[in-house]
Design brief:
By secondary structure, the protein is α/β, with parallel strands linked by helices. Helix content is about 25%, strand content about 20%. The longest helix is centred in the middle third of the chain and has 17 residues.
Length: about 525
């Protein structure tokens, strides 16, 4: 195990943004059966052939036996939302509604009267009662500020009375299509809004300076976890322009594969765009078929086991998905559809099956984001249509305490089915869905390998446990394939882009528990060291 005290002595001096680099004395995992002996030499941002002499004026880093692997990708995250969460009230891990109120009240006291208080991360499934909250206690404690608290999955929110009044939401307001305004047994508003009902509340718009600051905060958060590339799932044209501005200013160093939101039709019609250095590109589109399982918004073929007669919410229609998918293909864009429930997954597959395409349909690399609950006959349809599942292993560990209660013992066998997709011969791209989950890829690797809770205990889906190589491939080569980048990313080989994640221990052979505690030593993107342990 590597000691941080002896990490990074420099043999020759160079700027940290240089694209010439030599890594010596490392355990190199190439991501393939091919071994790599000797130093890793980077020239002009790419991996040089073995035996290549170090470029003049390079930086040489002695890694003292650290583990170097292909750069970790997060195949489904939300960069701006991650940056938002880092500056808002953090409600993740709260064990009761009372704790939520205490955290929010502490922040509200520091704000001027009438100023919004925004937070994210509560999950009623972690509370003793398991019931969705009612705004009454929150409104009593914080009457003078509009309060908006996003649930951990981003598919439900709690508004206090002041926020409901600002939004003009009353008990007699009808549910919008694809959403639900929850009411108590007396017919009064609870303050909880599900999926499209959340759009009834207009939050204060962030300034350009705030958006840029939060994007950069998210970038730094990714670097410290060893993440070299993010598939940024669902952005507006204006958000992309902010990223382009930061990139042009030399401040954006994270590799980003951007997915436009489905409502950005004009931008989608213009087709793909890629920066000259390849760091920033947009080539995909993110649509929603349904909501989330935790708030019972996922669309199921049969009713919820814990809410009979209720099957969740569709956020799109099948004809609408068909039309969008065809627009994407005609514009040279990849279509990626959020689908949690088995009914939503089937609807997305049905839509993909209607796409008019010349040649091999699988070349489109249509994606289903999450693919969380799939009817057993539909696994084969993924393979037949060449549809890629983009999954988040930590959804399994987060949902573990209540997933069987929601789905029942039979339907759970089609959920969180990483291995079932691999057995179909499909690449399975892995991510975290941050900030719904932590961006920490170590947690995703552990979840995929063990299917156990982080605190220890029995696995939920032991039949879906992956090997270390399979789990790492989900965060590297399979994620690269899901963004059409496997010729340049995902493995360590001569000529590929020099994206590396470096850890202080061997992730292939360390004890399972150490997957969670392995420390990031370096994060390297295109030969540039963007993070090193002990230095910010």
């Amino acid at each position: 195990m590597l000691s941080h005290a002896v990490l990074l002595p420099l043999v020759c001096s160079a700027s940290l943004i240089a694209q010439e680099l030599v890594l010596t004395n490392a355990q190199v995992y190439t991501g393939t059966a091919q071994k790599w002996d000797g130093p890793l030499v980077v020239s002009d941002g790419r991996i040089a052939a073995r035996g290549t002499a170090a470029p003049a004026g390079c930086e040489t880093i002695d890694l003292h036996g650290a583990f170097v692997m292909p750069g970790l990708q997060d195949a489904h995250g939300h960069l701006l939302s991650l940056g938002d969460s880092l500056e808002q009230v953090d409600l993740s891990g709260t064990k009761s509604y009372e704790e939520v109120i205490l955290r929010v009240a502490a922040v509200a006291k520091k704000k001027a009267r009438g100023e919004w208080v925004i937070g994210r991360g509560w999950d009623q499934n972690l509370w003793r009662s398991k019931d969705l909250p009612h705004h009454f206690d929150l409104s009593m404690e914080i009457p003078d500020h509009p309060v908006w608290l996003l649930r951990v999955d981003g598919h439900a929110a709690l508004a206090n009375l002041a926020a409901l009044r600002v939004a003009g939401i009353s008990a007699d307001l009808a549910n919008p299509s694809g959403g639900e305004i929850l009411k108590d047994e007396d017919g009064e508003l609870t303050g909880v809004l599900i999926d499209s009902a959340m759009s009834l509340v207009s939050l204060p718009e962030s300034t350009t300076a705030v958006v840029q600051r939060r994007l950069l905060l998210a970038q730094e958060e990714c670097f410290r976890y060893g993440i070299t590339c993010v598939h940024d799932a669902g952005i507006t044209r204006s958000e992309f322009e902010e990223l382009q501005f930061l990139h042009k200013a030399g401040k954006w160093r994270l590799r980003a594969y951007e997915l436009y939101s489905a409502d950005q039709l004009e931008a989608i019609g213009k087709g793909p765009w890629r920066s000259k250095d390849g760091l920033l590109q947009v080539r995909a589109v993110k649509a929603y078929a349904d909501g989330a399982l935790g708030s019972r918004g996922a669309a199921l073929l049969e009713p919820y086991a814990d809410r009979p007669s209720y099957r969740g919410l569709f956020l799109s229609t099948e004809p609408g998905l068909r039309q969008l998918a065809q627009l994407c293909v005609d514009s040279g864009m990849q279509i990626c559809v959020h689908a949690i429930g088995d009914a939503a997954n089937r609807m997305a597959l049905n839509a993909f099956a209607t796409i008019k395409v010349t040649g091999d349909r699988s070349a489109l690399r249509c994606r289903i984001e999450h693919a969380q609950v799939v009817a057993k006959p539909d696994f084969a349809r993924f393979a037949e249509l060449g549809v890629l599942p983009s999954m988040q292993p930590t959804h399994l560990t987060s949902d573990m305490p209540w997933a069987i209660v929601r789905l029942g013992p039979e339907r759970i066998t089609g959920a969180y089915a990483f291995k079932s997709f691999l057995l179909q011969g499909l690449p399975v791209a892995f991510g975290s869905d941050f900030p719904v989950e932590s961006p920490d890829p170590r947690r995703g690797i552990y979840a995929a390998v063990t299917t156990r809770p982080f605190e220890g205990g029995e696995p939920l889906r032991p039949d879906q446990q992956l090997t270390r190589e399979q789990a790492l491939r989900g965060f590297t080569l399979d994620a690269a394939y899901a963004m059409f980048a496997e010729p340049e990313l995902g493995t360590i080989a001569a000529g590929k882009l020099a994206d590396f994640s470096v850890f202080d221990r061997d992730l292939l052979n360390c004890p399972e528990r150490e997957l969670l505690s392995a420390s990031v030593v370096l994060t390297v993107i295109g030969g540039r060291v963007v993070f090193r342990a002990g230095k910010r």
